[in-house]
Amino acid sequence: MSGKTSRRESTEVVVIGAGPAGLTLANLLRQAGVECVVLERQSRPYVEQRQRAGILDHHGARVFEEWGLADTVLAGMPQETRFEFRVDGEQRFLDVSAITEGRSGRLVPQQVLVGRLLARLLESGGDLRFEAAEVTPHGVGGAAPTVTYRDAEGRTHEIACSYVAGCDGHHGVSRAGVPAHALTTYSHDYGIGWLTVLADVPPPGFPLMAITAHGFAAHFPRGPRASRFYLQCAPDATAADWPDERIWAQLRLRLADKDLPDGPIGEKAFVEMRSHVVDPMRYGRLFLVGDAAHIITPMGGKGMNLAVADADVLARALRAAVREGDEEPLAAYSATCLERVWQHQEFSRWMTEMTHEAGDESLAGPFRRRLARARLDRLFTSGPAARAFGDMMAGG
Ligand code: RFL
Hints:
D-Amino Acid Oxidase, Chain A, domain 2; 6-stranded mixed β-sheet; 8-stranded mixed β-sheet; FAD/NAD(P)-binding domain; alpha/beta; 2 domains; 21 strands; binds 8-demethyl-8-dimethylamino-flavin-adenine-dinucleotide
């Protein structure tokens, strides 16, 4: 190692990344009495302010209940039970709670989940280090891995550990360090673009998806005075194509709401509408968790929920390995998670195709448009079809 001062230490698990996956895992490991160190590249304010997802599904909420963290994560977070599909201006509602015997999710903006988990980890004496640069796992294919990094003062550190949890998102170092031949990657590009906008305007009564010939649009709550909007756009669209006036005009048109108030836009970004899954989610003593192992389109709202679900499976497996010397659950980690991941990828694909093709005929032609309409109509005429939708919205 090079650098100012080299420090060597050891722990059971090094968690790389303090997003939803890393912070959920670290909190669950603390509940399980398994020692860990979390290394995060960014500063605390940066991590706390990053706004993305908005709904914790029923399965995700249950994870925190089962680990005794419901008071930390769920307190004051309203249930999210109804969804609106606005088809050419006509309102249709589905009540997930009613069709799934009460298995509804919660409105938990991602930055709230992250902020609460972060505070809880630090209050309970957890070891979380921000601004960790050049985080690098070593020797994960062998019996004695280490992780090195450089802190904000320029000191280099080396942490010996039994396991490494790669929770560092799609562009992190964990997956990048695995030999290419050890992982199979499955990718899919939906061939559509999405523009997303965070704005200080009142949220809708219910999460709202609009299906129209002008393209798809959605309006989701992100707190008492904040909304996230999505607008289908050309896959190669740029910010110059979408000045604020065009955004508000298209939202009013697609949501069939000429009185939709506009407000300050805090973020305008293009979402890559693609999916990506690696198999297995493990290489030796390195376990990939959340977006580090798979990304999914925002359609269906499953990215953050899959991160929480993976963390739950891994925390249970690490508890068994560290506290009981039982490595069987770790051996099953990847297969257990991938079963859920593929179910949710399929749900997201189904919803993406249905909500886009049922509106915009130019995407897949008139025949596919009628098929997508039939699929959409069935949600409102068939109990089992609605139930299947509700089941996946609740987290499967
Ligand atoms: P994250 O959130 O990317 O966190 C990774 C963390 O790792 C850190 N990191 C590193 N740390 C140390 N060393 C390195 N070399 C590092 N490289 C990275 C990063 O700074 C960060 O703190 O991954 P994680 O934890 O797996 O969580 C995944 C979720 O964030 C993601 O799936 C969701 O945000 C996806 N998503 C949505 N999911 C939902 O469930 N419902 C939604 O409605 C929803 N909407 C969205 C979304 C994602 C969006 N983005 C990304 C375009 C809306 C948007 C706009």
